[in-house]
């Protein structure tokens, strides 16, 4: 991949990472606010489902943060944009749509097909 494209994707990934980290600290503040309101059982039930929801979002965020970190490491190592599975170049269009993609579209489709057959 060309240098200016790498710089472009690094900027996008870094910005996404910053945004997610800001979201993450806000989520923790929300969780602490919930705790303080726990008074009657109805409230507590609502708080619990709110907390579950928040934690679910939070774990999705942390998975995405890890993916972004992997992609940034790939940029440093010069392996960004190369399919981890088959070693071919991932198309730029795919990387634009999904900068954290680590598999080319063919490998991704294969994996999804395998997952469906296995019943995951
Ligand atoms: Zn591939």
Would you give an account of this structure?
This protein is mostly helical and 120 residues long. The chain has two domains: 1-80, Four Helix Bundle (Hemerythrin (Met), subunit A) (Up-down Bundle); 81-120, no CATH class. The chain has helices at 3-37, 41-77, 92-97, 105-118. Helix 1 (3-37) runs antiparallel to helix 2. It starts with a helix and ends with a helix. The model has no long low-confidence stretch (mean pLDDT 87). Bound molecules: zinc ion (ZN). Residues 83, 85-86, 88, 103-104, 106-107 line the site of zinc ion (ZN).
Which ligands are bound?
Answer: zinc ion
The third-level CATH topology of the largest domain is Four Helix Bundle (Hemerythrin (Met), subunit A)
Count of DSSP-assigned helices: 4
Helix content: over 70%
- Please tally the β strands and state the result: 0
Q: Which structural class is indicated by helix and strand composition?
A: mainly alpha
CATH superfamily of the largest domain: DksA, coiled-coil domain
Shape: elongated
Level-2 CATH architecture of the largest domain:
Up-down Bundle
Q: What is the rounded Rg?
A: 19 Å
**Hey, roughly how much beta strand do the residues contain?**
under 5%
Q: Give the total of domains.
A: 2
**What is the name of the CATH class of the largest domain?**
Mainly Alpha
Write down the oligomeric state.
single chain
Q: Quote the average pLDDT.
A: 87
Low-confidence stretches: none
Tell me the span between the first and last alpha carbons. Answer: 34 Å
Order of helices and strands: HHHH
Question: Biggest β-sheet, characterized?
Answer: none
């Amino acid at each position: 991949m060309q240098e200016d494209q790498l710089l472009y994707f690094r900027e996008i990934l870094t910005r996404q990472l910053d945004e997610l980290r800001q979201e993450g600290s806000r989520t923790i503040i929300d969780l602490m606010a919930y705790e303080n309101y726990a008074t009657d059982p109805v409230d507590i039930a609502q708080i619990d489902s709110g907390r579950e929801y928040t934690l679910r979002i939070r774990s999705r965020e942390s998975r995405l943060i890890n993916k972004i970190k992997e992609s940034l490491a790939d940029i440093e190592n010069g392996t960004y944009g190369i399919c981890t599975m088959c070693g071919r170049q991932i198309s730029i269009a795919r990387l634009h749509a999904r900068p954290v993609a680590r598999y080319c579209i063919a490998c991704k489709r294969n994996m999804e097909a395998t997952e469906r057959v296995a019943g995951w």
